[in-house]
Design brief:
Strand content: under 5%
Shape: elongated
Distance between the termini: 46 Å
Order of helices and strands: HHHH
Number of domains: 2
Largest sheet: none
Length: 79
């Protein structure tokens, strides 16, 4: 991970960020990270690469079961 230093922010911006973070139970750093991530979404190519990375972590290959099947299985296995 890389660090980012932002100089010259108005103190009122920092106070508003701190207040927002506190309301959400986050640190100032976590809140700032989330704002930056939302501001710069992944490109379709980056998303595809990330999905492939996630799929590769499953030894049985990609997940192919639908949400409906998962719900049905959960209901059937209830005591």
């Amino acid at each position: 991970m890389t660090d980012l230093l932002v100089r010259g922010l108005d103190p009122s911006v920092i106070e508003r960020l701190k207040a927002k973070a506190k309301r959400k139970g986050h640190s100032l750093q976590q809140e700032a990270k989330e704002i930056l991530v939302r501001a710069v979404p992944m490109t379709p190519e980056e998303l595809e690469a990330r999905f492939k990375e996630i799929d590769a972590t499953f030894t049985d290959g990609p997940i192919t079961i639908s949400i409906e099947e998962l719900i049905r299985e959960e209901r059937e296995n209830r005591p």
